[in-house]
Amino acid sequence: MKLVRHLVVLALLALLLSGCVQRPTSPTPTLYTQLGGESGVAAIVEDFTYRLAGDDEIVVFFANTNIDRFVTSLEEQICSISDGPCVYSGPPMDRAHQHMGITDAHFNALVEHMQQTLIDQDIPPGPRNQLLGRLARLHGEIMSLQ
Fold this sequence. Notes:
Elements: H1 2-18, H2 31-34, H3 37-53, H4 56-59, H5 67-81, H6 93-97, H7 104-120, H8 125-136, H9 139-143
Helix pairs in contact: 3-5, 3-7, 7-8
């Protein structure tokens, strides 16, 4: 009888302790994944580019720009800063924007276009704010030589 009692106590103890073991949780997806991966980033950049083309105050900055290269660079940049598998191969932000005469109003308009793009692409608020925050860090570089 003592043996049975010990076995029952051991079994109950094992059950109780098994509840204390942390079960592995699924890893948090990267921002890149939350943006939809390669196809999601491409859709964001395409939508954003069309918005820029439709803004008379902004489109003038792209008059002498190779749009295909711009799209590729922006896709790489968004992929890279969102922890995707890309490496940004474009020029540094200060050099790319030097002497363009970009004002804070222009910069803010770009941010508004990107925010609306992300909303229209059904990016949830969390990932949307994360991406906007990471892009906002580029403000100093973009505006440094204006």
